[in-house]
């Protein structure tokens, strides 16, 4: 018997062997970066079995089903890495802890978009381009004034990004040709310049649009972005300038409080990117059909708005208010365990230990409270946090605090209204969105439209039935006919008037 080679000297076969038990055929699927290509399975074909429907298309290849993208890698990326089991988050290889402690938001933005930490002159160029693009056309004031007095700031912001696109025809592939941005991947410098100009605009104007969505509800005039301030200082200035209760400015100097501006800067760093989260995926999905980047960002904004994504920080505050005081924490946790309540700010699809951002935020919270005063909700939050981390229900399910457990408390202490919390998430996340969008546009293999498949389970072919041969019972089942809606008295009156005497009991 020959000598057995040590495992390190064995040439490993990077492939997967698959047997299709329907046909007995064997396939070898290549493994690259510990992944298999879903498209390979299209070549695995079989004749229909007794339980197959024509719509299962067995002869056209096997499909890969992944409801909710639980285990599908949709892109190759070099931007952000998360190790959810070990609580690790890195931007371009740099640990989030180092960036939060030593960097600034625009420096981190440069890193995320361009791949390396900038030199002093590179940072200065990027900063001045972003801040230069802060001001917005005065027509935009009319756009914001067209909203109702109680419009949600996220409705305004989402619409505002799409609206912004209407100004820049030169950034619209529908008008300029579909390779407007993708030809940058082939070394076209004008295309690259055009792309970066839109990136400066999007980051520069994100704070301006967010501040406009904030001020319109207060009936205050809009503020032109100031000069001589950092990105986050400028944002706070635009929000609070000439505010009679301006707790953010030091000695009415109009310069935002340095501790609060720094805290927001750190929060922005922590929220800037999180690899293929729901909103970044939405930006790429939308961007894959090559619309202008403002439309793609508007789509991302809409995705972030949902309470399962950017709305959790608000849910934490509502939860803490409903608990009321530390003494009610045990009863609340019992209700969570009985699935009568949800512990917002705990648990994560990727992190199976504490979200590394939650430790940084906890520290920032103390610094903010030293300026704003301690939020009484903090005692309830601490009691909840400590009790959950000792409770076997949460420990056994690896449920730990995520970034949103503490961020809402900071925003509240800084005086932001609860419905503005998602806006504070969008502004920094614009950077992550444009970093992913730029990476996709520069892909050497070009941009493929993101067009997933489905498993069709609906009716097979059937023949049309004439209207007069159908009864109300033709289709039965929940959701299979339009709901019956209660109308207001106004609608009823209008219908009565229109009916001109032909009133039926159904009106
Ligand atoms: N409270 C109580 N139980 C929970 C919680 C929670 N917050 N989160 C998960 N669980 C339980 C589930 O009921 C499930 O229990 P089971 O196995 O007995 O059925 C188990 O833990 C596994 O949870 P999943 O639902 O499979 O986890 P999933 O990855 O699908 O969901 C999510 C992750 C949506 C974040 C979930 O943990 C949650 O709803 N958390 C609260 C909302 C929240 O804080 N969201 C912010 C996320 S961070 C961000 O987006 C910026």
TrEMBL record:
* Active site, renumbered: 348, 404
For whether the record's keyword set contains Chaperone, the answer is no
Query: Which keywords describe this protein according to UniProt?
Result: Transferase, Tricarboxylic acid cycle
| Metabolic or biological pathway | Carbohydrate metabolism
Q: Name one GO biological process term.
A: tricarboxylic acid cycle
SUPFAM superfamilies in the record, alphabetically? Citrate synthase (SSF48256)
UniProt xrefs under Pfam families: Citrate_synt
Family statement drawn from the similarity comment of this UniProt entry = Belongs to the citrate synthase family.
What is the protein's name according to its record?
Answer: Citrate synthase
């Amino acid at each position: 018997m020959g000598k057995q080679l040590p495992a390190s000297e064995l040439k490993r076969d990077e492939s997967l062997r698959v047997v299709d038990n329907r046909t007995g055929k064997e396939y070898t699927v290549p493994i690259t970066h510990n992944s298999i290509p879903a498209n390979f399975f299209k070549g695995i074909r079989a004749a229909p079995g007794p339980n197959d429907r024509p719509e299962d298309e067995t002869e056209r290849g096997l499909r890969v089903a992944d409801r909710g993208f639980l285990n599908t890698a949709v892109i190759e990326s070099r931007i952000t890495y998360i190790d959810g089991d070990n609580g690790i988050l890195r931007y371009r290889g740099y640990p989030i802890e180092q960036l939060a402690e030593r960097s600034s938001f625009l420096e981190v933005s440069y890193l995320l978009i361009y791949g390396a930490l900038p030199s002093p002159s590179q940072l200065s160029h990027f900063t001045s381009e972003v801040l230069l693009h802060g001001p917005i056309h005065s027509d935009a004031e009319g756009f914001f004034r067209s909203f109702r007095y109680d419009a949600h700031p996220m409705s305004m912001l989402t619409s505002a990004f799409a609206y912004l696109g209407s100004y820049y025809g030169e950034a619209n592939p529908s008008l300029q040709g579909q390779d407007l941005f993708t030809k940058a991947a082939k070394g076209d410098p004008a295309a690259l310049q055009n792309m970066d100009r839109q990136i400066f605009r999007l980051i520069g104007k994100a704070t301006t649009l967010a501040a406009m969505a904030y001020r319109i509800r207060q009936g205050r005039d809009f503020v032109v972005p100031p000069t001589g301030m950092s990105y986050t200082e400028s944002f706070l200035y635009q929000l609070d300038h000439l505010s009679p209760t301006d707790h953010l400015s030091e000695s009415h100097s109009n310069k935002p409080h340095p501790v609060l501006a720094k805290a927001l800067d750190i929060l922005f760093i922590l929220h800037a990117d999180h690899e293929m989260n729901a909103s970044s995926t939405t930006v790429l999905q939308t961007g894959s059909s090559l619309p202008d980047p403002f439309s793609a960002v508007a789509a991302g904004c809409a995705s972030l708005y949902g309470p399962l994504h950017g709305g959790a920080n608000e849910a934490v505050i509502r939860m803490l208010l409903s608990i009321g005081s530390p003494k009610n924490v045990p009863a609340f946790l019992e209700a969570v365990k009985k699935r009568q309540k949800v512990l917002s700010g705990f648990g994560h699809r990727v992190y199976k230990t504490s979200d590394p951002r939650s430790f940084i935020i906890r520290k920032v919270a103390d610094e903010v409270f030293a300026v704003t005063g301690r939020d009484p909700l903090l005692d309830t939050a601490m009691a909840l946090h400590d009790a959950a981390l000792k409770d076997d229900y949460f420990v056994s399910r690896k449920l730990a605090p995520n970034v949103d457990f503490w961020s809402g408390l900071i925003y509240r202490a800084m005086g932001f209204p609860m419905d503005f919390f998602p806006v504070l998430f969008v502004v920094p996340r614009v950077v992550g969105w444009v970093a992913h969008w730029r990476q996709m546009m520069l892909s050497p293999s070009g941009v493929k439209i993101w067009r997933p498949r489905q498993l069709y389970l609906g009716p097979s072919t059937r023949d049309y039935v004439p209207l007069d041969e159908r009864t109300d019972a033709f289709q039965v089942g929940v959701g299979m006919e339009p709901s019956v809606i209660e109308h207001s008295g106004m609608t009823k009156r209008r219908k009565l008037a229109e009916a001109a005497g032909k009133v039926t009991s159904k009106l």
